[in-house]
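User: Quick sanity check before I run a bigger batch. Here is a single chain. Can you write out its predicted 3D structure?
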Amino acid sequence: MAQVRLICGVDEAGRGPLAGPVCAAAVVFDPARRAPAGIADSKVLSARERERLAGIIKKKALAWSVAWASVEEIDSLNILQASLLAMRRAVESLSVSPHEVLFDGPHCPLLALPVRAIVDGDAKVRVIAAASILAKTARDAEMCRLHGQFPQYGFDAHKGYPTPKHLSALRRYGVCEVYRRSFAPVREVLEREDRGRGANSPSSLRSPSRSAAGRNSGRRAAVRRFRRA
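Assistant: Done. Predicted structure follows.
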């Protein structure tokens, strides 16, 4: 009798934003059951449809997980390596061990499992598309949570992506703790603020735990340490 192969799909959300963590999800469907209908690349679905499908995927999947790489990890590793780290964490958090892991995009993290990178995999492979939905909905929820702490930036609307309104708010309110300081638009704001203060010494540079927004609100906001789901 042939062994049933468990195939895992993995995708990430949040490589392009200027703020917030990067999220990855891993999904394994039961090969003996038909995958839920309507699953597609999260980018072509409405927010309401993504939320609806996320609930179905979590209910019907044999296993699923969501994992993160923090802003600090993004800045220290770079966004590609942080994304691969989140993907690896998602796979390692699964309650089952798949026979093969399929990743969206041209890169795979190092795993003790057979892996395969599929460019545009979220549009080609249903289990990767399912992972894209879980990653996108989880990250959107996190950015809405951060909006509650920092409403001046409008994270609930743009989710950290560099829209004109977001860039305007960033220039107006400064850089808070949830921004990726290694990203050029954020770095440019920090450098302009330093020039405006006439700062010439290393001691005058901002530390990662302080921000203009945090000082203006009279409190410090800590970046949550993200746990794997």
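Residues 126-149 form the longest helix (24 residues).

User: Great, the batch can go ahead then.
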